[in-house]
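Hello again, I could really use a second opinion on something today. My current little project is about how a certain protein chain folds up. You're getting the sequence in one-letter code plus the fold written as tokens. Here's the protein in full, and shout if anything looks odd to you:
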Amino acid sequence: FGIASDENFVITTTNRKEITEDNFSELVQDGVTLYLLQSVDQTLLSATKERIDFLPHYDTLVKSGMYEYYASEGQNPLPFALAELIDNSLSATSRNTGIRSIQIKLLFDDSQGKPAVAVIDNGRGMTSKQLNNWAVYRLSKFTRQGDFESDHSGYVRPLPVPRSLNSDISYFGVGGKQAVFFVGQSARMISKPADSQDVHELVLSKEDF
């Protein structure tokens, strides 16, 4: 750092708390931003940047669907929630060379577990990374780049057709999660990529959160 051997310095947090032997383990964690200063109250000579990593509070996922669909005043919101779930299947089967099969099942047999809504399709499936990315809040399926492998890589937006035949609903990467937690309290996604023998399963549940 270019500090002379006879020069005094301090290391502080961005809250100007000096790092000492006593508080080191408490204040210094992975990802924390530190200042190297001549004194605790030294004026910063230039603007600083701090990287912040965070996860949304679980209520953001669990309760957002309620807020979203209750806002549909005067309308029955359930069809809108189901449409969001079917949208995933519409996109997954958009390039099928054969029949596009999308089934909606309402399961109420207690012997098979809790009541559930199942949407089943014969689409191309998702890799584990693509399935992981589906769970990321506000990660649009059209803008996933860099470290994110799109769950619709190579996707071509359909020509203008009636919305019921299109797959352009969940543009902002939010709708699917909102729909799930409006209809129920957990989501279980099971997917097998067309070119792989691996079957991947993702579970998001209020209980686990």
